[in-house]
TrEMBL record:
InterPro entries: PEP-CTERM_TPR_PrsT, SecYEG/CpoB_TPR, TPR-like_helical_dom_sf, TPR_rpt
UniProt entry keywords in alphabetical sequence: Lipoprotein, Signal, TPR repeat
Keyword Membrane: no
One Pfam family here: TPR_16
Domain Ancillary SecYEG translocon subunit/Cell division coordinator CpoB TPR intervals: 629-755
SMART domains: TPR (SM00028)
Domain of life: Bacteria
Organism: Azoarcus indigens
Signal peptide limits: 1-31
Ranges for the TPR repeats: 71-104, 380-413, 482-515, 788-821
Any single biological process term in GO: cell division
Listed name of the protein: Putative PEP-CTERM system TPR-repeat lipoprotein
PANTHER family according to UniProt: CELL DIVISION CYCLE 16,23,27, TETRATRICOPEPTIDE REPEAT-CONTAINING PROTEIN
């Protein structure tokens, strides 16, 4: 009995032993089952020799659980991650190993490979481009990685040198031979590249890189099926290496073999379901199948884990553009272009985003690098995009040229034919335009692109009734589209039928209550009807429904500002807009501009810097930063920002013109002229660059050069008066009054304007032809009696020449036109005081009531009050004026005169001393202050 019980107990031991062993094995996976970390590292090395990377990885992670600072474990785990295709994790572990003291020479080749696979090509070249390692094999592996980085940067010759040097150091380092094969392929030697790949495949049958290179050679010969087979072999050789899975799935997607791609993607998910590459491809499949929300969510997960992964940024930009979220798309697209400026899809999407948000000028700037890359390309989609951009910018000749090329490549594309029709219409080819538009309409019965174009075409010609006929067809095809009725309202607006326009806009809003374009049009009508409260209420209602609608908040702020709301209220609205859309540049720009209006340049600068930090290659953000830096007085930083803008828009003259202005303000006149010359080299007839060049040369004393530039402008722009206007300015600076008058006369004959009238009057007066000068202004005012520019010029001129009665007459005429204008009231008060007009104080008080804290108005009122015996009140206002504008020396001098006049000499002397401490030597104001000091 005892033995039987013993036997039964013994028979249980194997089972119990198995359970204990299983438990120990399970625990070993987590804690090594009692092994020390070094033993686990040794075990991992054994697994690595067998190329069992999963088992090796488990042992290394267990070792690091016991000792997180084990440098060798970090190094080996980095190699495991590298073999498994997780480059970002490999970089992290290898860097940590080096920090913990592991041999830098050992780490270098592996870390270079990891950086390379993570896309950090510049990092490889910066850290290892000139690095020399003592061991030949390590040096060869490092040179192979350097060669790959140079290949990625497009420097084929340097890459080949690196690969050849690697093979000279150690011919058995097959990645160098693979790289050499790629340089042969890049040079067009497909046979030579395939020979290199086959050599490696024989030497290293399990090397997946050889199969991958073979796939590239098949693709170069446009044999994608053979390439798929080669990549299948690469995956079979190393199933844990995700990069080959990735290439295989990507290739199948490009071949439109979606089912096969999804099948291979399923295999990839088994290997690494949560890996960023796997998630990226799933998001891409979602995008291809029209599941844009799922694609957006998926790519956001990818970017959360790998924020520098450029393909994910490109996919995110693509998805967001398809979702019409143009502003949110741009940071992703700019991220791609910052690192890969020649990436064509990113740039096309960027252009599309600007078109979508109505920023046609920016779309044109972003388009130029694409056109330069394409050169003589007849890619129909690019030609169509270029035509659309030029059409939006009003360059109808260029639009017609590009769209004609697009239509010739895709004659059945209704959208392109419709756009071509609009371009022809705008260019004057009416018959051809309507033929194309009608053909487009017949080609596409399901959508309304052609009908939309027809409406616009008729509107451009002023044929509003015909536009309404075309709009009815649009309404038939898209009766539930709010854009249909918004356009209808636009036609009625053009006809000045505001009641019908309002009804159409209301219909658009009834279909889609959040449709901002129609709401904005209704707001405009409210403001036209002088109903600002109703206008604001429309935006407020939308914001109540959609609190995160930043566009509506920005629009509300603009209405608040234009209707006189307090600056702080406008600022609060814009702060809310920026807060609800932290990734958007537009609300930040509006907020910056408001801070600048409120004379808060430092606050504006902080926001601008934050915007650029978030989106370093975003052109609008950089542009506003540069201008804000100028406003804040930081000219050197502004120059740096404008220089970056120039590098981002190499074929755009505008940034160079802005850079030149910053250089001029910083005193670098030579640099400014060079920048303007570069702008003119890009566009020789650029008006603003030419104008700035004339002004700059005048400032530097080069009158001959300035005059020569005006002559060039006259030749380039024969119908533009600006060239003659600038010639007149140059002649005036040289005291050539007669010649200046002749130039101004030519300018006036070509384009009559108040500015030219004033300049012609000045030149004729200085030439001693006063009667002729007065005849010019009199003739102008006879036909433009309410022209404030000419009246103001005449008033200021009379004031400066102490002809106060005449000045008062002109200012009174101005006041009839603008009865609440503070500047006019102030000037009129001043001259009225000089001619002892008792109405002087009343004028001044009206100005002060409108702007109670305007220091110049306070100064005027104070001086008049002193003159009429209200000395205490007058001095109080003069003192307040100085406190509000302490740097305006004339105000301080006026206060000192007032103190002296009432016998308060100590206070007068104190103001004079303060003034003289900062007054410019030799200035009339300094001389007047010293004369006053002598009387105290």
């Amino acid at each position: 009995m005892r033995s039987q019980r013993s036997g039964r107990a013994l028979r249980r031991h194997p089972s119990l032993g198995g359970a204990v062993a299983a438990a120990c094995l399970s625990v070993a996976l987590l804690a090594g089952c009692g092994d020390d970390p070094q033993a686990m590292v040794a075990s991992a090395k054994t697994y690595l020799e067998k190329k069992d990377y999963n088992a090796a990885g488990i042992q290394l992670k267990n070792a690091l659980l016991e000792d997180a600072d084990l440098a060798e474990a970090r190094y080996l785990l980095g190699k495991v991650y590298l073999e498994q295709g997780d480059a970002f994790a490999a970089v992290k572990e290898l860097k940590r190993a080096e920090e913990l003291g592991y041999s830098s020479d050992a780490v270098a080749p592996e870390l270079a490979r990891a950086l390379l696979r993570s896309g950090d090509f510049d990092g490889v070249l910066k850290s290892y481009g000139e690095r020399k390692l003592p061991e030949a094999g390590a040096q060869a592996r490092l040179l192979a990685a350097v060669g790959d980085a140079r290949m990625a940067k497009g420097d084929i010759a340097a890459a080949r040198n690196a690969y050849e040097a690697a093979l000279a150091a150690d011919a058995s380092v097959y990645p160098a031979r693979i790289g050499l094969g790629r340089t042969r392929l890049a040079g067009g030697d497909i046979v030579g590249a395939r020979a290199e790949a086959e050599t490696v495949a024989k030497q290293e049958p399990g090397a997946p890189e050889a199969h991958a290179l073979l796939a590239e050679t098949w693709l170069a010969e446009r044999r994608p099926d053979e390439a798929v087979a080669a990549l299948d072999a690469a995956v079979a050789a190393r199933p844990s290496a995700l990069s080959y899975h990735f290439r295989l799935v990507s290739l199948l997607l490009s071949m439109n073999k979606l089912d096969e791609a999804k099948e291979r993607l399923a295999a990839m998910k088994k290997a690494a379901p949560a890996h960023p590459s796997t998630r990226y491809l799933q998001a891409f499949v979602d995008f291809r199948e029209g599941r844009f929300q799922e694609a957006r969510n998926g790519v956001q997960l990818v970017l959360k884990g790998t924020p520098d992964y450029l393909p994910a940024h490109l996919l995110a930009g693509s998805v967001l553009v398809r979702l019409n979220d143009y502003i949110a798309a741009r940071p992703h697209l700019n991220k791609v272009l910052e690192r890969a400026p020649q990436q064509p899809l990113a740039r096309r999407l960027l252009v599309a985003s600007y078109l979508g948000s109505g920023e046609s000028a920016r779309a044109l700037e972003a388009l130029q690098p694409l056109l330069q890359q394409a050169q003589q390309s007849e890619d129909a989609s690019l030609m169509a995009l270029a035509g659309q951009v030029y059409l939006a910018n009003g360059d109808f000749d260029a639009a017609e040229s590009y769209l004609s090329r697009a239509v010739s490549k895709s004659p059945n594309d209704a959208t392109n034919r419709a756009r071509l029709g609009v371009a022809k219409m705008a260019g004057g080819d009416t018959d051809g335009a309507f033929a194309d538009l009608e053909a487009a309409s017949s080609l596409d019965q399901s959508t309304a692109q052609a009908d939309l174009a027809l409406v616009f075409a008729h509107m451009r010609r002023g044929e509003y009734d015909k536009a309404l006929v075309a709009q009815k067809e649009l309404e038939r095809k898209e009766p539930n589209n709010p854009q249909t009725y918004n356009l209808k309202g636009g036609v009625f607006l053009a006809k000045k039928d505001f009641a019908e326009a309002r009804q159409a806009f209301e219909k658009a809003v009834s279909i889609q209550p959040s449709y901002l374009p129609a709401i904005t049009n209704l707001v405009r009508l409210d403001l036209l009807d002088k109903k600002p409260a109703e206008a604001k209420a429309r935006y407020e209602k939308l914001i109540a429904q959609e609190p995160r609608n930043s566009d509506a908040l920005v629009a509300l702020a603009e209405v608040q500002r234009s209707t006189g709301s307090p600056a702080a209220e406008v600022l609060a609205t814009l702060e809310k807009a920026a807060a609800v859309a932290p990734a958007a540049t537009g609300p930040k720009i509006a907020l910056i501009q408001q801070h600048l209006r409120m004379q808060q340049p430092n606050k504006a600068l902080g926001i601008a810097q934050t915007a650029v930090t978030a989106n370093p290659a975003d052109v609008p953000a950089l542009e506003v930063l540069a201008h804000t830096q100028l406003a804040a007085g930081d000219r050197q930083q502004a120059i740096s920002s404008f220089t970056k803008l120039v590098s981002l828009q190499q074929q755009a003259p505008g940034p160079l013109v802005d850079l030149a202005e910053a250089q001029r303000l910083a005193g670098d006149l030579t640099g400014a002229e060079q920048s303007l010359q570069r702008a003119l080299a890009i566009q020789r007839d650029h008006v603003l660059a030419s104008q700035r060049l004339v002004t700059l040369r005048l400032q530097s004393g080069n009158q001959e050069g300035a005059l020569a530039q005006t002559k060039r402008m006259q030749q380039q722009h024969a119908d533009n008066p600006l060239g003659y206007l600038l010639e007149g300015d140059v002649r005036m600076s040289a005291n050539q009054w007669t010649e200046a008058a002749a130039a101004y006369r030519r300018a006036f004959d070509q384009g009559q304007s108040a500015e030219v009238v004033n300049k012609l009057h000045s030149a004729l007066s200085r030439a001693g032809r006063k009667a002729e000068a007065d005849k010019v202004t009199s003739a102008w005012l006879a036909t433009h009696p309410r022209d404030l520019t000419v009246l103001g010029y005449l008033g200021e001129t009379a004031l400066s020449e102490r002809r106060y009665a005449e000045a008062a007459r002109h200012f009174k005429s101005m006041l009839e036109v603008a009865p609440d204008n503070v500047l006019i009231l102030n000037n009129l008060a001043w001259v009225a005081n000089e001619i002892k007009d008792p109405a002087a104080l009343a004028y001044a008080e009206r100005a002060l009531a409108a702007e109670p804290n305007n220091p110049v108005v306070l100064d005027t009122v104070g001086n008049i009050e002193i003159n009429v015996g209200k000395q205490d009140a007058g001095i109080a206002k003069l003192a307040k004026a100085v406190s509000l504008a302490p740097d305006l020396a004339q105000l301080r001098l006026n206060l000192a005169k007032a103190y002296a006049k009432v016998g308060r000499k100590d206070e007068a002397k104190k103001e004079i001393d303060t003034l003289l401490a900062t007054a410019k030597d030799g200035s009339p104001l300094q001389a007047e202050a010293r004369e006053l000091a002598k009387t105290l």
